[in-house]
Amino acid sequence: QGSCIHDGTWKSAVHGLADQDNLRKLRKKIGYAPVPVVGAKLKRRGFMFYNQEFKKYSIPFMGSDASVVKRSQRYLHTEFQETPVQYGAYVNIGGLGSVIKLMFAGILFLILVKFSFGRKLLTKYPEFFSAGYFTKKGPTQKQMDGTSFTMTFFGEGYSEGQDPQNGKPNVKICTEVKGPEPGYVATPIAMVQAAVSLLEDAASLPKHGGVYSPGAAFSKTKLIDRLNKHGVEFSVISKPEV
């Protein structure tokens, strides 16, 4: 029966984009040292491109995933001297018709979020401006039952003993995370299992208090094992040598 999302997420996107300049200023003020780039630099794909892996058009994912991953990598590199990973996030949008619709909707959205009047319109009429995808009621039970998510990760790196500064990556890996409806089913599963990890894996948590990204807080715990047992599945699809 299709899918839809509660307008709380829509409001987060509206106010998040409107405030992005202030976020940049805050990050600049903190003055973090750049995360080291090891090996070949990850190339950013264009604003819109044809994804050969999925035979669909894709765009950069507008969520906070890339920023959160970078924060995790900084922590793991600083605390455990782990080699930082470069990361980019993209979302498939389908065929050419979907591309045209998204372009018009995206341009309108980006213009409106810049003005307080535009933001009021967007938050007051989410269903109209999102073509029914975001609603004040949220999804029905049938919609949630019929929805799932899949995230596919394509990684490249270096085999044991090879110097990353010399030559191109020579090892590839493809992994996947999949589960039930992401907003209202998978998220509560993840939060409950994270809470269990806080209680049962205390010795594996960071030693100092503070605000941590999930990757930093739970990297040494059994959280992934717990998620696998409760319907959010992590798996390796392939590991071919280049």
TrEMBL record:
GO CC terms of this entry: lipid droplet; mitochondrion; plasma membrane
InterPro entries from the UniProt entry: Saccharopine_DH-like_oxidrdct (IPR051276)
Keywords: Membrane, Transmembrane, Transmembrane helix
Source species, domain of life: Eukaryota
GO biological process, one term: glycolipid biosynthetic process
Transmembrane regions: 89-113
This protein's record includes keyword Zinc: no
Phosphoprotein among keywords: no
Range of residues in the leader sequence: none
Entry protein name: SCPDL oxidoreductase
Originating gene: Sccpdh
